Structure formats: C-alpha cells, structure tokens
Amino acid sequence: MKSALNKIKVIEYGSYITAPYCSKLLADMGAEVIKIEEPVQGDISRKVGPFLKDTPGPDRSGFFLYLNNNKRGITLNIQKPTGADIFRKLLCNADVLIEDTMPGTLETLNLGAKDLKQMNEKLVITSITGFGQTGPYKKYKATDLIAWSMGGAGYVTPRWCGSKEQEPLRASQTGSFMTGISAACATMSALIAQRRDGLGQQVDISLFESIVLLIAEVFPSWTYVHRSNTRASRPEQAPQHFLRCKNGWVFLHADEAHHWERFVHIMGDPDWAKSELFADWNNRAQYWDSLQPLIESYTTQHTKAELFALGKANRIPFAPSNNAEEVVKNPQFRERNFFVEVEHPVAGKLEFPGFPYQFSETPGAIRRPAPLLGQHNVEVYCDELGYTREELVKLNEAGII
Fold first, then answer.
1. Are the C-beta atoms of residues 308 and 320 closer than 8 Å to each other?
2. Dihedral through CA 235, CA 226, CA 131, CA 92, nearest 10?
3. Cα angle vertex 150, ends 131, 322, to 5°?
4. Number of helices (H) and strands (E), helices first, in the chain?
5. Which residue segments constitute the domains of the chain, with CATH numbers given?
6. What angle in degrees, to the nearest 10, is found between the helix axes of 18-28 and 174-197?
7. Which residues contact 198 (CB under 8 A, 6 or more apart)?
8. Hey, how many other C-beta atoms are within 10 angstroms of the C-beta on 195?
C-alpha cells in the first residue's frame, strides 16, 4: 500500500526540534527524507536526554530517536567547497529542502534560495528561523523560551490559575513543536502549488509567529477593549477550571446551566449552591475564589477516575489531568494503536507517539528507526551519487563527511 507522500524526496539540513520535527511529519507519511548532520558531532539533540539506562551516547537519546524515525542519515560539512558541491548534487533531484540556518547563512555559500532555484526550479525551500527572513529581528537567534516570552505566551500561562505576582511560566518546547507542525503544513501547501505550476518557492517559517498563534484567543481583548489578559485574568463563565481531587487534578467545564445543575445534583444539592452569588455562569466566575473551595470539598473526596466516570454517567464535561504513564496506558490510545513500538539497533525497543491522523488508503507508518550518525553515507554517496569507496575515504579524511 502506497503512502500519501510516496516519491516525495526531502533533504533536511536542520538540528534539534523545529526542522527535524517538520521533516519527521513528512517522513511518517511516506516522504523519503535524507537527514544531513555535521560530521563527528551530529545533531545537537543526540546530546539531549533521556538516555537509555541513563548512559549518554549519540545513539541513545530518546529525544533524537523520536524526532528522526523514518529518515536516512548522512554526514556532510557544507562549509567546505566540496561539501557545498555535494549539497547541490543532493538537491538537484529533491522536491523539498528543510533548513533552519540563520538568514543569509546559505547565501554566503552560494546556496541561498535564488541560487538553488536556478539549479532546481521545482525545489520547495522551507526555511525555519527564530524571527523570519525579514524584519528588524531577522538576525537575532531565538530559543523556544525566548520566543515563548516575547510572543506573550508566558504572560498568560497558566491560564486562569496564576496571580499577577507570579513569574511568567513556560511550556516545555511547545512552541518548537508547533513551529514544526506549521512548517510541515506550509511545505505541503507549497508542494501542491509545485505540482500545479511546476515551480517551487521559499517558505518562511518563524518560531516567534508560531508562538503567537498558540495564544491567538487573547488578542481580541486588546483589539476591542485594549486589555492585556494575564495569567490572573478570570474567565467570564465558570466553572471551567482545574480542581483538586484525591489523587491529583481534574478539569471541570460546567459553565452551561444544564451541566452546572447536574453537577450540583451529584454533589448532593448543597445549600450553598442555591446562593444568588452562584446563580449563573457570570456570577460563578466573579465569585470563583469563594466557589472553588466549596466545590473542592466534594472533588477532594474522589479520585480522577471516579470523577471522570461520574462525568460520563451524567454528561458533565470532566477531564482528568493525566501524567505520562496515564496517557501511555489510556485505553483509547491502545485501541487505536496510537503508540508505536520501534526497534533501534543500539537503543533496542522503544515506544513513541504515532500519528494523530489515520488514512484509510494511504496510512502513515514507522518504516525505519532513527539513523546512526552517518549510517547511510555509503548508500547515498556511492549508490545514488556515484562516488567510489575510495573517494568516500578521502572525503572523510578531509572532514567533509
């Protein structure tokens, strides 16, 4: 059975999360992805834990192994003229280049978008940077935390749960993964245009802008009433909050009258629920500080599983706040085979998140584990580009591969 992106050839020249995750999403759908790493050191994510049995090693990072399934891997130093020539050869017959270099870096090597388009007019070049290819910040470097803070996400995190005095918080690499998703979607759109018009183009993806999209719902407040929401801002309807329970937290979304009435009933119709202070969703939001401990006097007597079951039985939106173990063992994921087992030659059998989409005719699949550093040098350079084994030895000795 053919995959959705069968025969799409992608060259990845990126490191860590954004570019590798973008190309992983394409590889999972069947694209042929060749990952280029620096000789000797490789992708920086090879140094990021967790590691197999807590023993660091370039082929033992669970982080790297997840981000690079389904790819073939080669080593190449494009800073050297011979390396740059090999890079061009790889791109001559490619459909997509995914890269995350600083704006202008490839241009200094005569490998910029204009140079590559002259060589392969159908090439789609997806360029992922901190702040984009234009603008006053284009030369600035950015990490996920920098973009998270500058994009306003830290200012509203955690939503409705913090105080004005509390320092801004971050979510773990959320922006980087969101940027990878945005880049994959944009790349697919450019490929559709390529198939229609026969021409490629450069796709400019910004981590900074992708972060802003994560909190897009807060900006109408500024547009309409010039109010900047903070983590201390309260929802206009309640309850839609996290609540303590016997073994953690649950999220209750019962602002609708019928949901609230059902919830009050399962709590035993306490007298306090009849107060005018809690008569409608706006009042419950306004007096939430008084309402929360009253509700938690009930929820703290029950476990997450018990409250979730009560919610299902009474059609009340309840959700447990799950940890990683609870997510992995969730029966919904198990029934749909969401988590996929992959066997790696060094790390052994590992389980990774699979695909949040299922195709009836062209399903995604994990076809190969993440590559060892330079694992496919011979296959790509000799079998596909025509270099001899002797030439490969010389390229290695010169630090080019």
1. yes
2. 80
3. 105
4. 16, 11
5. 9-214+335-397 (3.40.50.10540), 240-322 (3.30.1540.10)
6. 50
7. 121, 122
8. 10
Contact by Cβ (8 Å): 299, 239: no
Of 304, 384, 301, whose CA–CA distance to 94 is shortest? 384
Each residue of 49-105: pLDDT tens digit? 999 889 999 999 999 999 999 999 999 999 999 999 999 999 999 999 999 999 999
CB-facing half-sphere around the CA of 246: CA atoms within 13 A: 9
Ordered per-residue pLDDT tens for the chain, 401 residues: 789 999 999 999 999 999 999 999 999 999 999 999 999 999 999 999 999 889 999 999 999 999 999 999 999 999 999 999 999 999 999 999 999 999 999 999 999 999 999 999 999 999 999 999 999 999 999 999 899 889 888 877 766 665 666 777 777 788 999 999 999 999 999 999 999 999 999 999 999 999 988 887 777 777 777 777 766 666 778 898 899 999 999 999 998 999 999 999 999 999 999 999 999 999 999 999 899 999 999 999 999 999 999 999 999 999 999 999 999 999 999 999 999 999 999 999 999 999 888 899 999 999 999 999 999 999 999 999 999 999 999 999 999 99
| Cα 121 to Cα 116: distance, rounded to the nearest angstrom | 8
Compute the Cα dihedral for 264, 269, 270, 274 and give only its sign.
positive
Residues ≥6 apart with Cβ < 8 Å to 394: none
Distance CA 374, CA 163 (A): 50
Tokens of 390: 């002797």
- What is the spatial distance between Cα 50 and Cα 347, in angstroms, rounded to a whole number? 12
- Closest-CA residue to 86 (of 8, 9, 170, 11): 11
Pairing of strands 348-353, 339-344: antiparallel
* CA–CA gap between residue 15 and residue 43 (Å, rounded): 5
In single-letter form, the type of residue at position 367 comes to R
Q: By the 8 A CB rule, do 376 and 12 touch? A: no
d(CA 336, CA 355): 10
Report how far residue 160's alpha carbon sits from residue 106's, in angstroms, rounded to the nearest whole number. Answer: 44
Instruction: Report the C-alpha gap between 154 and 230 in whole angstroms.
Output: 9
